[in-house]
Every structure is written in C-alpha cells, then in structure tokens.
Amino acid sequence: MPRLETLGVHAGREDFGELGVHAPPLDLSTTYPVRDLAEGTTSFDALVGGAATAANPIYARLHNPTVARFENALAQLEGTTDAVAFGSGMAAMSACLLAAGQRGRHVLAVRPLYGTNDHLLNSGLLGITTRWVEPKGVAAAINADTALVIIETPANPTLDLIDIRAVVKAAGSVPVLVDSTFATPVLQQPAALGATLVLHSATKFLGGHGDVIAGVVACDAEWAAALRQVRAATGGLLHPLGAYLLHRGLQTLSLRVLKAQDNARKLSKLLAGHPAVAKVCYPGLGTVANAHLVDTQMHGPGSLMAFEMHGGHAAASAVMAAVRLATPAVSLGSVDTLIQHPAGLTHRVVDAATQAQHGITPGLLRLSVGIEHVDDLWADLGQALEAAQLSAAA
C-alpha cells in the first residue's frame, strides 16, 4: 500500500490512463443522454437506492464522475471502502443524522463540538433527541433507541482530545461518528481506531485555499449507500467544480498540514511566554485534555490552537483588530493564517452557560496557523498583542 503522501497525489486517478488525461476532468453536465431506456431505468433505480455507480449517471444529483473521483481519493486516505461528498460540512452532518434516524431517534454527543453542529443537535430540527455526555458516560447513556455517538477530536475550539478507541468500546454496537476536521487523515485516521463514520468539513484543510465549501464522510459501503440515498433525496450534493478543487487540494495536503504544524509548534511556545496571554490550549504543549494521545492516536499536534487573553473580550477584540498578516475571519485549515473569536462567532449559537462550562470564554481566540514564514507570523501576532496591551492601558 502506498504511503499517505503518495496516495494524496495519485488516489482517485485510476482511470486517467484509459481516459488519456493527466489532470482530472471536470464534468459539469447536469443531465446525461438516455438512449437505452431499459438501461436508464435500471441505472436510475440503482442510484436512487444508494449505489456508487451505474451504467448511466442519469442526472447530476444522483452521480457525477468528478465528485466520485474525489470521494474515491478521500476514502483511500482515510482507509475506508467508501466516501460520500456533500455541499457543506453541515450538509454532511445532517445526512449522517438523517441516515442514523432510520436506526433510532436518540443521539449521544460529547462537547465541545463545532458551534453549528452543537446547535443542530440541540435544535430538534431533524427529529432527533440529543443527550450530552462526557466520554466516560457513553456506555451508561446508551439505550435501545440510540442510533449514533458523536465526538470531535481535536475539539473545536479548545483542542481537547478524546480517546477514539475508548469511545468505540463504550459505544458497543452503536456507530461512532468522529469529526476529524482539525486532524485530517495526515494526522489521524479514526476508521482504523474503530469509528464508523469519519466526517470532514472539507472546506478546511482538504480544500486548503479558502475557495470551496464542502463536506465529506468516509465510511463503509452500507453507510455510504444510506448517505447517498439521503443526498439524492435532499439535494445536498457537492458541485463538481468544488470536487475538482478538493481533489487537487489533496495533492498538497500532507505538505500543507505538516508545514502549518511546524509553524504552530513554534508559535504556541512564543504565545505561551507572552505576558498578554493567560494560557495557550495546544496539544503540543500538553495543555489540553488527553494530550498524551498526540503520540498514540495522532501523528502530531496539528496547526490549530486557542489562547486566552488577559483582559477578556476587550483584549481579544483588540488583537483581532490589530492583526495585519493574519486574517480575522472564521474557518480554518487554509494556507493563510486565520484568527477568530469563538464566543462571538463560531460558537455564538451555543448558549453562554454551555460555552463557559467548556472553556469558551470571552477572552479566548482560536488561531489556525498557515504556511507563511513563522517569523513573519510572530511579528504580526506580537505587534497585535502589544496593541492590545496598549489599548488596555489607555
């Protein structure tokens, strides 16, 4: 089996020799000719029923070859048989919940999660009931109607880690979904640890350039069929241009993730030593829950961190206003560095009491480190921290 760096470059390109191309073809067709009605009818039934392919694609909501190549590549990177792509990470999560709803209406989830996932699970919009538990409480909370256990590791935004093997063991026969967006398959492969579903907001590291919104779920054939049925019925498909960009992004995924991680290791230490910073949450510093998993479950601490400002909300706001090289914006995993305020932005839809319980404080900033030169990044962050100090003293 080729190593991950090699798979990133070559996976999903198995038919290029037959096609006589070097770059991935971009198929923008919305519909496909049906000259043999019997074949078309059989193909339609297969695709609506969740099949990965059919003799005729029929209609782009049911199948697109550009999307399928990206799915194939991501499945190889995650070590699963299948993957199903969607128009956003939230569409992917929604599809997982709808597919799980055929098994039961009860879901267990561990906080913190990405704020909108938290909101969706708490809202009842999809007809499910969510019980929030600690990882050690999973086994006791399962009942006959429990359809899914949901965790995110590293967690958004605190970077706490959760032992995937332990949760899978506690869940027993109940499927476990792992949101692995922060780690990517470069640093973590949850399916090898027993997870049933591996979800990515592909908008982030998989795309890597801030120019595509997408989601993808790596899984086995049975779950993939159920997810494709949901996608076909609800229309949560990924546009082929997005799939093209994502497939291209996989070629440099390892390079980008490892370079950004190297920068983050250095920046985390510099931030931890700055007088304006109260604490830094980063797995590489050992300052998050279960940091030991960096050396076992993960292959490195990643490039995301959160840091708490002395001075609370005002200081955090001052830093976001003062950065010049880093971009004050939500999202993460891009080649450029992004900084944002979880309590005021990504996790604003989570109630204040829950935010406080899970360390999402008014002074917390989340930093997604990019691939710029680390000295330039520190010069920018350093001047922003000094600006915040001056603002507080004024």
Describe the structure.
The chain is an alpha/beta fold and 394 residues long. The protein folds into two domains: 4-29 and 64-250, Aspartate Aminotransferase, domain 2, CATH 3.40.640.10; 253-393, Aspartate Aminotransferase, domain 1 (Alpha-Beta Complex). 40% of the residues lie in helices and 14% in strands. It has helices spanning 4-10, 16-19, 37-48, 65-78, 89-100, 115-123, 138-141, 164-171, 184-187, 221-234, 240-250, 253-272, 312-322, 352-357, 374-393; strands at residues 82-86, 106-109, 129-132, 146-152, 176-179, 197-200, 215-219, 277-281, 304-309, 327-328, 338-340, 364-368. The strands form two sheets. It has a seven-stranded mixed β-sheet with strand order 1-7-6-5-4-2-3, sandwiched between helices. It has a five-stranded mixed β-sheet with strand order 8-9-12-11-10. β5, α9 and β6 (197-200) form a beta-alpha-beta unit. The chain is globular. The model has no long low-confidence stretch (mean pLDDT 97).
Ranges where pLDDT stays below 50 over 5 or more residues in a row are none
Helix fraction, binned, reads: 25-40%
Structural class: alpha/beta
The overall pLDDT average reads: 97
Strand percentage lies at 5-15%
- Output the helix-strand order: HHHHEHEHEHEHEHEEHHHEEHEEHEH
- The tally of structural domains comes to 2
Q: Tally the helices: what do you get? A: 15
Please give the largest β-sheet: 7 strands, mixed
Rg result: 21 Å
Spatial order of the strands in the main sheet? 1-7-6-5-4-2-3
- CATH fold-level topology of the largest domain: Aspartate Aminotransferase, domain 2
Modified residues (N6-(pyridoxal phosphate)lysine): 204
Keywords: Lyase, Pyridoxal phosphate
GO biological process, one term: cysteine biosynthetic process via cystathionine
InterPro entries: Cys/Met-Metab_PyrdxlP-dep_enz, PyrdxlP-dep_Trfase, PyrdxlP-dep_Trfase_major, PyrdxlP-dep_Trfase_small
